[in-house]
Amino acid sequence: MKHSDKIAADKTSLGFEFQDFVYIEKLIELKPEQTLGLELYDDIHLETVAKNGLIEDLLLVQVKHSVDPGNITDRDIDLWKTIDNWLKLVQDLPSYRTLTFQLYTNKSLNNQAFVSLLKAPRQNIQAILDHIKKTDQEISAAEAKKKPADSPNPLAKYVKSISQTSDEKLKFLFERFEFHSDSSSIVTRISSALRQLAIPVSRLEDTRKHLIGAFKESKFSRIKKGEKVVITFDDFRTNMGFDRIIRSARAEPADFDRFVDVYYNYQRPDTLSFINSKFHDQLKDIGIGEEEIVDRGVEMTLAEQFMESLQDAGSFSASENSRLENKAVSDWKLLHNQSHRNITEDDDDVAHQKASQGCYDQTMRHLLKAGDMELPSNLSCGKFIKLSNLPRIGWRKNWQDKF
């Protein structure tokens, strides 16, 4: 075998991988009342079971992959072979209420006559039957002209078989036929399905690989035991561990250290001012200079934007952020009580301001924690300043009365 032939043989295995990936995509979409089978009635089949245990809907999926996708043509052998297989398969199917035949392909649909008719088969039944007979006549005529040593057209036997099928059976199939043509990457579609389950973007690749590995292991184990690959919603979610995979992916630790880069890459406008802010009034009141107040305001603004970005990425929820702020208030309260323990109402303003500055300085040096993770100092400061701006905390002993 030539090297090029070996490469071509290797590429045929992509069809099996594509089928598995399509199966995984449909597993992610599986509903509690559904069961997904692999290579039982068809490449893939999807059963929707009613409350009485009977099959409500049965979907048969024939998966066709091409290394060089191109277009499905009127003489596409995969198309005709699939139709012929379905016609032979119908009598062996279990009882069902509704049945759908779906051709799932990475090829595009062109505008040739037969393909165009199949885009809306229910409206074109008679035209489809006429086209089948016409195609059989054309291929048969071409075959009759060949010499005995010439190779037969591989399409001929499928077209002949379909053409000889009764109109009743053909109508039954084409009334239930549909194309699923998608030339986009199946890997991208799996990632998109996972993203809709709130998987953080940064965890999509690892989660997808974890899921594919779990399926491959389950498939291998079932085949080794001589079992059919038929997976229920509960099998997928619990036994195969999809729920656990999802929880693990969503539990990605937030990268708080990234705030350091955000803070030091920030280009501060020359005219930046927080003069109308509550925290500005509180800091000005205890003698903090304008330049430092602006520094605190920048930390507050960037901290809020950063926490929102973590929430958007799914790595730190709104409830976790609220819990962090409540803990910050508790930590501040201990520092505030300590700073003002020996201060009375009779003390002069100099003593009050000194204690207030001490409370502020201690708070700004205090590093907050989210779980076991310590926040960078600028991020902690930004959180405390936000709470001062609400205002939920303050620096003076009587800050609540004043602000």
In short:
Helix content is 55%, strand content 11%.
- What's the mean pLDDT score? 92
Low-confidence regions: 3-9
Q: What is the makeup of the main sheet? A: 6 strands, mixed
Secondary-structure element string: HEEEEHEEHHHHEHHEHHHHHHHEEHH
Classify the beta-strand content into a percent band: 5-15%
Whole-number total of structural domains: 2
The portion of residues assigned to helices is: 55-70%
Calculate Rg over CA atoms: 34 Å
In DSSP terms (H or I, runs of 4 or more residues), the helix count works out at: 17
Using the alpha-carbon principal axes, give the shape.
elongated
Look at the helices and sheets and give the structural class.
alpha/beta
Distance between the termini: 86 Å
- Strands across the major sheet, in which order? 7-5-3-2-1-8
- Beta strands, count: 10
